[in-house]
């Protein structure tokens, strides 16, 4: 974990990834040398720069997944980081295979269990989500990172997707399209089936009643608040985990950050009620 914490101290933001095969190979070699063995511990931390960032290169065909798997395969039986990285590569190929056999699942529910689900079309709230103005810091940080970099940490992708589908009660293709409009690694199979995993309509879907709490998720995976402060400058005056709950600070809204557009507890109950109504 020492390397993970060193990365946190050294991370001061990043630019877009450089293009080309040699740049991809440099990034990959640095990741294997510095962070592969810590990947299982740090991969859910958006405040750390410890993921491989190879997804754009994979999406564009600059590198082949077999090349990456070849480098980590000797370690998968000994190290959790290598095992988790190999698993992520496998998920990418799995989703491609699902789309090959079920092409309609790109823009329709793969499974039929939630076909009767009632969805909303809250135009203003969806726009607040797109712009990173929901009043939930970890959600807004992720959505602003997406607009600025064309990339978002995977843990935050799940949090923001859960917010749209479970808090705003919006059908997942709305979010999938927005992500594809902005992601430089926007692989349609991985993106859309990742959204279905969150929405509870895809392969091995998370149970629909698993609703991500954006506040506890932020505190758990961005414990120092560094990720939020990086992307939400209106909260940079709040130290540590206080950045995840500006409503608890006397000066939390002193710099123009919006108040929450909804009550998560209320919308969680609403999501579960809608789920029960489909059964």
UniProtKB/TrEMBL annotation:
Domain of life: Bacteria
InterPro entries listed in its UniProt record: Crypto/Photolyase_FAD-like_sf (IPR036134), Cryptochr/Photolyase_FAD-bd (IPR005101), Cryptochrome/DNA_photolyase_1 (IPR002081), DNA_photolyase_1_CS_C (IPR018394)
Pfam families: FAD_binding_7
Domain Cryptochrome/DNA photolyase FAD-binding as annotated: residue spans: 87-276
Coiled coil: none
Keyword terms, alphabetized: Chromophore, FAD, Flavoprotein
Keyword Flavoprotein: yes
Cofactor(s) needed by this chain: FAD
Family per record: Belongs to the DNA photolyase family.
Family annotation (PANTHER family): CRYPTOCHROME, CRYPTOCHROME CIRCADIAN CLOCK 5 ISOFORM X1
Name this polypeptide is given: Cryptochrome/DNA photolyase FAD-binding domain-containing protein
Organism field: Barrientosiimonas endolithica
């Amino acid at each position: 974990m020492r390397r993970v914490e060193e990365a946190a101290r050294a991370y001061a933001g990043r630019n877009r990834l450089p293009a080309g095969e040699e740049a991809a190979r440099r990034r990959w070699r640095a990741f294997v040398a510095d962070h592969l063995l810590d990947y299982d511990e740090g991969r859910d931390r958006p405040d750390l720069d410890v993921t491989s960032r190879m997804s754009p290169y994979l999406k564009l065909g600059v590198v082949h997944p077999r090349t990456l798997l070849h480098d980590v395969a000797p370690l998968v039986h000994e190290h959790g980081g290598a095992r988790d990285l190999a698993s992520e590569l496998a998920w990418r190929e799995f989703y491609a295979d699902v789309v090959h056999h079920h092409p309609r699942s790109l823009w329709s529910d793969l499974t039929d269990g939630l076909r009767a689900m009632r969805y909303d079309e809250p135009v203003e709230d969806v726009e607040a989500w797109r712009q990173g103005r929901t009043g939930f810091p970890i959600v807004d940080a992720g959505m602003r990172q997406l607009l600025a970099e064309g990339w978002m940490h995977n843990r935050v992708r799940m949090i923001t997707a859960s917010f749209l589908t479970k808090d705003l009660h919006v059908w997942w293709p709305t979010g999938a399209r927005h992500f594809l409009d902005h992601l430089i690694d926007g692989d349609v199979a991985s993106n859309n089936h990742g959204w279905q995993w969150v929405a509870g309509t895809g392969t091995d879907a998370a149970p629909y009643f698993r609703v991500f709490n954006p506040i506890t998720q932020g505190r758990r995976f961005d414990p120092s608040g560094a990720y939020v402060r990086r992307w939400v400058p209106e909260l940079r005056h709040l130290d540590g985990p206080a950045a995840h709950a500006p409503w608890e600070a006397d000066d939390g809204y002193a710099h123009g950050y919006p108040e929450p557009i909804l009550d998560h507890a209320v919308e969680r109950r609403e999501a579960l009620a809608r789920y029960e109504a489909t059964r």
